[in-house]
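Per your request, structure below.
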């Protein structure tokens, strides 16, 4: 195999996902994975597979606070980003 040829093979796991968690969330995730006997990637993959009989939970909508509730005018707010 020529040098670098192995990089041209199709890889079904060629995508990477990362997200940040706080210390408490990490501890809870580790506890869940230890209880199931799986690694974190294996545990996440097992929860990604969608079972047709299981319907996703509806997202709860929260009421947005109006500018009056916040006690500020929208013209007075400045974005830092």
């Amino acid at each position: 195999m020529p040098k670098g040829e192995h990089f041209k093979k199709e890889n079904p796991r060629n995508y990477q996902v990362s997200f940040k968690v706080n210390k408490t969330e990490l501890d809870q995730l580790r506890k869940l994975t230890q209880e199931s006997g799986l690694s974190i990637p294996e545990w996440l993959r097992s929860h990604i597979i969608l079972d047709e009989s299981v319907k996703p939970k509806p997202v709860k909508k929260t009421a947005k606070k109006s500018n009056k509730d916040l006690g500020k005018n929208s013209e007075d707010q400045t974005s830092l980003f």
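The chain is about 35% helix and 0% strand.

Regards,
D.
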